[in-house]
Each structure stands twice: as C-alpha cells, then as structure tokens.
Amino acid sequence: VDPVDELSAQLEKLGSLDKYPNCYPDVNPQDIYRAHITSILHEITGVDHTIIYNALQWTLSLDKGDLVLAIPALRVKGKPNELGQQWLEKWPESPLVEKPVINGSFMPFFFKPVPLTQLTIPTARKLGREFGSNKANGLKDPSDPSKGQKRILIEFSSPNIAKPFHAGHLRSTIIGGFLSNLYSIAGWDVVRINYLGDWGKQYGILAVGFERYGSEDALAKDPINHLFEIYVKVNKEIAEEKEETEKLQKEGKTAEAQNIIENSTDEQARKYFKLMVDGDEKVLALWKRFRELSIDRYKETYNRLNIQFDEYSGESQVSEEAMNGAAKSMLEKGIAEESDGALIVDFSKHVQGKAGKALEKPIVRRKDGTALYLTRDISELLNREEKYHFDHMIYVIASQQDLHVKQFFKIVELMGHKEIASKVQHINFGLVLGMSTRKGTVKFLDDILRDVGDYMHEVMKKNQDKYQQVENPDAVADIMGISAVMCQDMAGKRINNYQFDMAVMTSFEGDTGPYLQYAHARLCSITRKANLSEEEISSADLSLLTEVHAVNLVRVLSQWPDVVQNTLRTLEPTTVLTYLFKMTHVLSSSYDHLRIVGSEPGLMKARMALYDTARIVLSNGYPIVGRVHDVPT
Ligand code: ARG
To answer: What residue ranges in 145-240 does DSSP mark as E strands?
Structure first.
C-alpha cells in the first residue's frame, strides 16, 4: 500500500476532528497520531475522547517512545498495569503505530517510521517558514477566523534614560523579545511596549548638569554616553555638597549650611523638575530632546537584536491628571488612606491574613502631592486598557520587583477592575551575576554586545585555519557574540540566577549560541554543496530513509510544532532552546551515517529532503530565541 493513500484512509476513518481538542493535522503531523491513538483507546475503553487526547504526553527522550500515556490519567477503575494488559489484548493492527508494550503504569507509543517520514518532511517543506507556527492559538474564535486575532501587549526592556543599562534590562529585553516572537507565530496581534524610566527628579538633575557640562556636539554624536557622563558628574557634585552641609551642621554652622542647601544643585534640580511637571515648555523641550535622541540610539541597538518596539511609552507619558484621578478613586473606594499627609494603601486591611501583610503599606501619593512609580503603573495600566482593548498583557520585569508588581496588580483589582486584573501577567526572572565588562562600567546594551563580540573574535582567532576563510570576521564575531549572550540567558529557567561567563558562552563546544550558529551554517553548506533543485528534492523517494539515524531525526523534527505549543504553556525560552540542542545533537551524529556527497542519486535526494527539514526547523526555531545568520564555514 502507498503510505500516502494509507494516511488519507486513516484520516477519513478518524472522521470529524472536532472531538479532539486543538487537533491541527495540517500543521502538526503529530496530531494525526494523537487522534489515531485516541480513537483506538476510545474504542477499547469507552473513555471520552478529550480525556484521552489530553492525556497523551511527550516523552523525555526517543527511547521512551514518541508519545506516552500515563494509564491512571484515563481515570478507569483498576490497577494501571492490569488495565493496560487488558487493553493490549484488544489492540488492533495499526498502520501508524507499533503495538505498545506496557511499562509499569505507562503505555508508550512508537510511531511507525515510514508514514511519519512521509508526513513530516512534506508538511515541513510545504509550510517552510510557517512550520511550527499555528495561528489558531491567537484567534479570538478558532472556529471562525473572521472574528480576528487576540491582542497581547508585551512590555519589556524599559531602561532608564541617563542611567546604566543593567542586567535586569538585558534579561527583560531578551525574554521580552522571545515572548513577542512566540506569540506572534502563534497568531496573536502583538504590541511591543518599551516603558522608559524617563521622569522624576533625576531628569531635573540631568538638565542642571547639562547646563554646566553639556555639549550639543557630544549629545548628537553619542547621547547615551554623554548624558550618562553628565549624570555621574553632577551626582558627584550633589554628594559633595551634601557632605559639606553635613559637616557644617555638625560644627553647628547652621546658617552657612542652610545657605548651601538653598542654592544647592539638588535644590536647583528639584525646582527644575517642578517646572517640568508644571508643563513649562522651554524646560520640556530640552528634556524631550534628551529622550528622543536616546530613543534613536536605543533603536539602533535593538535592531541588532532584531527587536522593534511598537511604542516607546514611559513614566513621563502618564498624565498627572490621570494619576490624581486614580489616587482620588482609591481614596473614595476606601483602598487608600491618609497617613502623615501622604496617601498609602494598607493592604492588611484589604487582603486577609499573611498575604495582606506581605503586600505591606506602599505610598501612592507623596506629601507634596507628587505621584510615584507605583501610582504611575496603575494609571498606565488603566490607560493601556482604554487605548488597546487588549486580551492579555505581560510585564517582563526582574523578580526584584515582584512585590511592586503584586501591589499594583492587587490595587487595580481592589479598585474594581477585576476583568483587567485577570488579564495581566508578570513574567519575572532572576539575576545575572558577574556582569561587568572589561572596558569599564556597562552603560548601555552596546557595551555588553561589543565586549562579547571582541571576546568572540579572539576565540575565532584561535583556529587560524578557519579564521583565514572567514570573509568578514568582525561582522561574524558580532553576530556570534549576540547569539552567545542570548543563548546563555535562555539556557536555564527564567527564575534562576546565572553567571555571566564569556568563556563559556562563546565556546563552540557545549550548548551555546555559537554551536547553534555553527549547526545552521553546516546545514546551509551541505545544501550548497549538494546543489539539488527544489524539484529534485520534492520528488525524493522518502521511503529510502530507513536508517536508525534518519528515522530518529524525523522523529525529533516531527516534534517541533508541539514544542512551540508547549512553550506557549511554559513561556520559558529554555523549552525551545533545549529542543534545538536536542535536535542538533541528533543531527550532528547523523552526518557520518547519512552522507550526501558520494551517495547514489536517489538516496542523495531523500537525505537532502531530510536535512532541508532540519534546516527549516532550526531556522524557524532559532529566531524565536534570537536571530539566525548564515555564517560561512
Ligand atoms: N524602568 C524600570 C527599572 O529600570 C523598569 C520598568 C518596569 N516596568 C514597569 N511597568 N514598572 O527598574
């Protein structure tokens, strides 16, 4: 029997796929197997389709099968092992799966290789860039695409103007970029927001500093570094003045101390910021220029990471009016109360027990009437709801701010916006340890990337033979450096801290960014050398792919759409990355066994179709976590 005919016969036998939740065989080859096994188990056990379908799990490694059922998950009375044996007695001959063997309370399934190959390779090659993405996830109603996409807001990166770009911002950028890519291939309408730290007395300090030390030339050339330098300088002056006044006060020279305080840089900055808050156009124009020039520079760097924001919002964009409104509403609803002239939220009065205590008593409006980080976030959230009518929103913020985020989500809920509170999510992450560069302090992302790029360049030079063949070593080192940083960040679970280690991340051995880049480059080079036309590859006789290495590679490749689905559940970059490393390991170990050059033409075509599928998976998977480049080998 022709395996393709056999497959379509099987599909027809399954009948309507509606009874299987999230079953999309057109884009996910494994869904056919899931549906097929479900229908067999349903016939035998009578258990509901949905329960069986959802109980079929991935395996940890290929030797454990392609899918596995934990027998107790079907909730049938009896001992799992005995139940399994009884079911096996009734197991029909299947064209798609081998007859299972019970292993304890598990029933592992091994797919028959020929139909799997016939299904996976053509599906992947037909879908190309779309293989692995399933736009159904992002539809408001998967059964009716005309109802449109769901909208997700992802707020990430969010550095502070004139202050260093620290590890927290680096991770937020990487994880936020990953989430944006993930949701976008899942069919969501993704809005990427950068919520800049661009407001507060520190911008008064910066302006006063600019009057003293600023240079228009330097600002135009390198706004981020120039502003940072000014900021550091003027803060040093403030510290000195403070020391001076404290000394005078200690000596009892109160009048002199007072005189310094009144004319101090700090006081000037406070007045300056007051003018900004009051909307003084002249001072706002300067601040606006700082902001815009900085954003222009940010954009260049984000582009290197393949990240583009849809909106540069920021603390400055939250209107005083909206914040006063929010504070008033908190007061009226009895959520906030006066305390020493300020407005606070005493959570222990609103949330019972330990949880309430843990949320503490944050201030939402200062004595002098100025608002705070917390209040801004509350207002901004309400504002985003109005502006975007989103279905979901993710904040990618370091776990150091867990308490802050909990407080502001809770306040929004207490204010009666239950619906809004239910669709916001905090994606947090741990620290990066030891992130200092060799060339001084980190000021912006550029400094980090440049440093890793330089390091990467040295690593490359160690292999002079290969190095000589690289056409543009600077550019290659730069790209490899970027993937090194990204992969190191994404290797573990988000919540874990990790050590920033240039030697480890830039190595070609081990599960690193350069290793993945190399795997991709090697595939591209094989493709070039084989030099087969699209028609030749498409016409390949895939039944020739019988070797264990070929079969195992197909099995891993067929998992890719499921990996994406699973990642949408875990929201962990490591879910994708771990898979990509697993796949590339199977791939590299197959090269010696599945040669192209020197094989007879039929085999050459079939193997090329297999490698092409691997290339598709790698180049679809890699951009989720970063950016793939065809680096010449
Ligand atoms: N700019 C802040 C910081 O550097 C991060 C902003 C996080 N986002 C938020 N909505 N609070 O700490």
So the answer is: 151-155, 189-196
Residue 395 Cβ inside 6 Å of ligand 1? The answer reads: yes
Q: Is the CB of 195 under 6 A from ligand 1?
A: yes
Quickly name the fold that domain 480-625 has.
Answer: Isoleucyl-tRNA Synthetase; Domain 1 (1.10.730)
- 166 as an active site residue: the answer is yes
SS3 425: strand
CATH node for 3-111? 3.30.1360.70
Topology at the third CATH level for domain 153-327+369-432: Rossmann fold (3.40.50)
What residue has token string 């809005």? 191
How would you classify the pairing of strands 106-109 and 342-345?
unpaired
Residue of 163, 201, 274, 582 marked active site: 163
Amino acid residing at 405:
V
> Which residue has the least CA distance to atom 6 on ligand 1?
158
- Name the band, by pLDDT with cuts 50, 70 and 90, for residue 631: very low
- The residues spanned by each domain of the chain are 3-111, 153-327+369-432, 480-625
Asked whether residue 629 carries a pLDDT value surpassing 60, the answer given is no
- Asked if residue 336 has its Cβ within 6 Å of ligand 1, the reply is no
DSSP string, 35-85: HHHHHHHHHHH---HHHHHHHEEE-SSGGG-SEEEEGGGG--SS-HHHHHH
**Tokens found for residue 485:** 């940083």
- The count of other CB atoms within 10 Å of the CB of residue 497 is 12
Helix or strand or coil: residue 335? coil
What confidence category does residue 624 fall into, taking pLDDT thresholds of 50, 70 and 90?
Answer: confident
Per-residue model confidence (pLDDT) at position 164: 83
CB environment 534-551: b (16+ within 10 A), e (fewer): eeebeebebebbeeebbb
Query: Among this protein's residues, is 350 annotated catalytic?
Result: no
Q: How much is the pTM? A: 0.94
Long-range contacts of 590-596 (CB under 8 A, 24+ apart): 590/549, 590/550, 590/552, 590/553, 593/547, 593/549, 594/547, 594/549, 594/550, 596/526, 596/529, 596/530
Q: What is the ipTM of this complex?
A: 0.99
Q: Measured at the alpha carbon of residue 387, what is the angle toward residues 381 and 390, in degrees to the nearest 5?
A: 70
